[in-house]
Structure formats: structure tokens, C-alpha cells
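Sequence, please.
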């Protein structure tokens, strides 16, 4: 028997749903992108958390909740943090729109929702500012062993 969680497939479906809603030229990857970040970038964290909340039928059926992160990053050459903050928040809005538009991830789970948002800032250099919005998406559903 292989890995049973629906988490890897949820990551793929989230990436696809998010990519459809991003402004032109903004990429969405799974894992930190090879070659580094673009000025505006969204990437789905390669890691995920799975909580098993119910097991039935001798472990053949289980309920699980999966937390997946979407990291929305904007980098600007500016002295003012407002510009990258606004851009990163716009990307986070695209992520929220994607989750609301596909609440079952095309039938993969019972429901997916935004369960948290974290923000941060980074100063790459004297004139380069970066803002990060981490959108935490929780997916709940059942897994049936074959």
C-alpha cells in the first residue's frame, strides 16, 4: 500500500486553480521555485500537515484534515514597503478567490477553506523590499484504502 493521504493531489489542484486566477506573468509553483523568485510569485509549500481525525472499518476509511500553505511574495526596489505589501495582498486575494471557487477541489475533498493568514516583511538590501503573505488552506475529507 502506498501513501494514502490526498494531500499531494490537493497541492496540485490548488496550484492549478490559483494559477488560473493570477495576473499575467505571475507564476505558481509547488515548492520553492528553481532559479529563485520572480518579482511577484506564488508558491505552494512542498510540505504539508495531515491530521487524522477519524478511522473506520479497521483503518480502511479515515477522515483527515490537510493544511497546505500558499506563499505570496512581492519584491520591489523601493524605500516604501507599501508597494510590495499591496502587491502581495493582491496575490493573496487571488489565492482566496481560487479556494472559494473550488471548495471541494473538483471533488477531491469534502471542503477546502482559508483557515489562516500570516504576513511578514524582508529587506533584501538598502533599496529592495519584500513582503510575504502566507495563506493557510485546510482541506477536509475522507481517504479509503484500496
Amino acid at each position: 500500500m502506498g501513501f494514502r493521504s490526498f494531500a499531494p493531489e490537493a497541492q496540485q489542484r490548488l496550484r492549478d486553480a490559483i494559477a488560473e486566477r493570477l495576473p499575467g506573468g505571475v507564476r505558481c509553483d509547488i515548492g520553492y521555485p528553481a532559479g529563485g523568485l520572480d518579482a511577484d510569485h506564488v508558491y505552494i509549500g512542498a510540505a504539508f500537515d495531515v491530521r487524522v481525525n477519524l478511522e473506520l472499518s479497521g483503518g480502511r476509511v479515515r477522515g483527515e484534515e490537510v493544511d497546505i500553505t500558499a506563499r505570496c511574495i512581492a519584491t520591489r526596489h523601493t524605500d516604501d514597503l507599501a508597494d510590495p505589501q499591496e502587491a502581495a495582498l493582491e496575490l493573496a486575494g487571488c489565492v482566496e478567490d481560487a479556494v472559494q471557487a473550488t471548495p471541494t477541489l473538483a471533488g477531491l475533498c469534502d471542503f477546502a477553506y482559508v483557515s489562516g493568514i500570516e504576513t511578514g516583511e524582508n529587506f533584501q538590501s538598502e533599496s529592495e523590499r519584500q513582503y510575504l503573505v502566507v495563506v493557510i488552506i485546510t482541506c477536509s475529507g475522507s481517504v479509503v484504502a484500496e
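The first helix runs from residue 7 to 21.
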